[in-house]
Amino acid sequence: MSGPRPAVDVIAPVAADAVVVRAVLDRLRALHLRPGDTITVVDNRGVGVTDPDVLVATDVRTSYYARNAGAARGTAPWLLFLDDDVDPPADLLDRLFDPVPGDTTGVLAGAVHDSDPGPRGSMAERYAYLKSSMSQAITLAPDRGDRGFAQTANAAVRRVVFERVGGFRPDVRSGGDADLCWRVRAAGFELEHRPDAAVVHRNRRTVGAMLGQRFRHGTGAAWLDAEHPGAMPARRWPGLLWWGARRGVAGLAALRRGDRDAAILGLLDGPTVWAFELGRRIPNRPLPRRR
Q1: Among 45, 73, 133, 186, which residue is least crowded by beta carbons within 10 Å?
Q2: Parallel, antiparallel, or unpaired for β 154-158 and 105-114?
Q3: Angle between the N-to-C axes of helices 176-186 and 207-227, in degrees from 0 to 180, rounded to the nearest 10
Q4: pTM of the predicted model over 0.70
């Protein structure tokens, strides 16, 4: 992009150790910034990294509280939210705002590509890659209608719209991105997919970590369905159990014939959906603050 683009405040929440905070800071500093752009890594745990681009915000242990705190720090007309487990290209901002969005666009959804671990990667990483688990094309699919949403792994929000709808709900652990997008739409603004502005998502390396992530997403789904009735209805358990068992049998058959990818999909399809649905039984509350 050679022409002018709006200034952007780039915000990434982190709830990890100091090594991760510094790594995220390095990745944001590698972005091609223009006058008026800022970067902020929001330390939601309080790990003691002292840097002008690090904001400590620990009163509420949620990524959405951290994002709100980061947004309040700047004044740029656009806010770009990135997750701490994505790798953005240096020219992400220019790609995201080319062309400059129209006045009715409230959210820009950049693309999120799952990292490719190669054919011998861990089961969890390979599964996420094969399923395109973080694809914005899935969460913004036309069949979702007005329930499509942008994931905060790579999403820009117009500041005036963000402030008008009240920002993210700070008191939830999951589902806050969808909730924000639906409130943006209700306020009369549009969501726009920018597939050429892509980041690479680093997927969970172990099956346990992946299922834990899916479980947390399930808590958000239940909360979203309560806040926006009919948005994410639960699925029926008898059918899920039977479907998952059949997928497992198919996975074992694929394993016997040496088709590793088909085996991974078959063996993990059931557990990932079961973890998601089980997560609905857990309140979507933030973790208690450490004293």
Answers
A1: 186
A2: antiparallel
A3: 30
A4: yes
Separation of alpha carbons 222 and 61, rounded Å: 20
- Domains located in the chain, CATH noted: 8-122+131-204 (3.90.550.10)
Name every residue whose Cβ is closer than 8 Å to that of residue 132 and which is 6 or more positions away in sequence.
114, 138
Determine phi and psi for 2, rounding to 5 degrees. Answer: -100, -25
Q: What is the pLDDT along the chain (291 residues), one digit of tens a residue?
A: 556 899 999 999 999 999 999 999 999 999 999 999 999 999 999 999 999 999 999 999 999 999 999 999 999 999 999 999 999 999 999 999 999 999 999 999 999 999 999 999 999 999 999 999 999 999 999 888 889 999 999 999 999 999 999 999 999 999 999 999 999 999 999 999 999 999 999 999 999 999 999 999 999 999 999 999 999 999 999 899 999 999 999 999 999 999 999 999 999 999 999 999 999 999 998 765 554
- Sheet with 38-43, strands from edge to edge, namely 54-56, 38-43, 8-14, 78-82, 154-158, 105-114, 190-201, 86-87
